[in-house]
Design a protein that fits this description.
The chain is built from 12 helices and 12 strands. By secondary structure, it is α/β, with parallel strands linked by helices. A hairpin with a 2-residue loop joins strand 2 and strand 3.
């Protein structure tokens, strides 16, 4: 039965997204907006030809809920205060990193909403524009006509901006222009697909950016992940087994003695054991010691100096803090740690 309606359903979704329903041999991307129970849902649609028809993936964005503020993202107070201080600096590059779907765009929009004052001119280059912001000059990247990130960024710098947001630094040219813009008096915010904050500098250098540019312009890197929150109505206490205890002690001495919780499942959470998600963050600020280590061209020296920074706490340890508080489960902590060990660079 479902197979019979599949092609008709795909065609209907394509019409709603303004796509070509006769083209079934090539991937297509589109978007449409629907209203469900007083919520405006923005839907991003991606189609791809497969052996027996087409595969369709939809990404849902609730426009009604609005842009989240930094306080709602789950940042610890000390980290949030440092991040707010960094983005209010007059110039420099602040990067938000993590794999696809880790909430990078949400964090950047939360930062922009804080910076969005009448006296500040903000220009963004996005692909696609996910939220509409008042007073902000938002530019949709369009590679078909040659309007890529680098082109938008070059033009933006002639428009006298105070703050520039680049949706993603994908190539050497965009990264170099962004770093030069940060060095010449602009606050630049952007994202990068890297595993953690420490490996971000190596990625910039691998992209072919000059070492002196990174040392002069980069102010901070915030890496993040999203973890599932336990349902407060049905969570149960969990006693770690011997293997989990050994892993916890390896992660942080003394952590295995804490009280942990696990997912259970009830009608309120649709028997999943989880309700909602929360962000896990690590913030690496470029201190004089880190800049010196970066200039010496010894990668291990930089990594060692980063991990010894006062106040620096890794993603896995931040996730463990949430597990101790009963907000998430050890399974989620293990999942975050596993992605850090295996690497998710793309």
């Amino acid at each position: 039965k479902e197979r019979r309606v599949a092609s008709a359903l795909v065609s209907r979704l394509k019409i709603m997204s303004g796509l070509d329903i006769s083209e079934k041999r090539l991937p297509q991307d589109g978007r449409f907006n629907i209203r469900v129970l007083h919520h405006n849902i923005d839907v991003r649609l991606s189609t791809m030809p497969v052996q027996f028809g087409e595969s369709v993936v939809m990404r849902l964005l609730d426009q009604t809920s609005g842009i989240l503020h930094l306080e709602a993202l789950g940042m610890p107070q000390d980290l949030q205060s440092r991040f707010e201080y960094l983005i209010h600096r007059p110039h420099g590059l602040v990067l938000v990193t993590g794999p696809t779907g880790s909430g990078k765009t949400t964090s950047l929009y939360a930062a922009l909403s804080l910076l969005n004052q009448p006296e500040k001119k903000i220009i963004t280059a996005e692909d696609p524009i996910e939220y509409r912001l008042p007073r902000v000059n938002q530019v949709q990247v369009n590679n078909k006509v040659g309007l890529d990130f680098a082109t938008v960024l070059r033009a933006s710098l002639r428009q006298d901006p105070d703050i520039v947001l680049i949706g993603e630094m994908r190539d050497h040219e965009t990264a170099e222009i962004a770093l030069r813009a940060a060095m010449t008096g602009h606050m630049v915010l952007s994202t990068l697909h890297t595993n953690d904050a420490v490996s971000t500098v190596a990625r910039l250098l691998d992209m072919g950016v000059d070492r002196y540019l990174v040392a002069s312009s980069l102010r901070a890197v915030m890496a993040q992940r999203l973890i599932k929150k336990l349902c407060v109505h049905c969570r149960r206490t969990h006693e770690p087994d011997s293997q989990e205890k050994a892993w916890l002690e390896n992660l942080e001495a003394g952590s295995s003695a804490a009280v942990f919780h696990a997912a259970n499942g009830c009608h309120r959470c649709h028997n999943t054991g989880y309700q909602g998600r929360i962000g896990v963050y690590e913030l690496l600020e470029m201190s004089p010691q880190l800049v010196t280590a970066l200039r010496t061209d010894r990668q291990q020296d930089f990594a060692d100096a980063a991990l010894q920074q006062p106040g620096f706490r890794s993603l896995a340890l931040r996730a463990l803090d949430f597990a101790r508080e009963g907000i998430t489960s050890l399974d989620e902590v293990f999942r975050v740690s596993a992605t850090l060990d295996e690497g998710v660079d793309v």
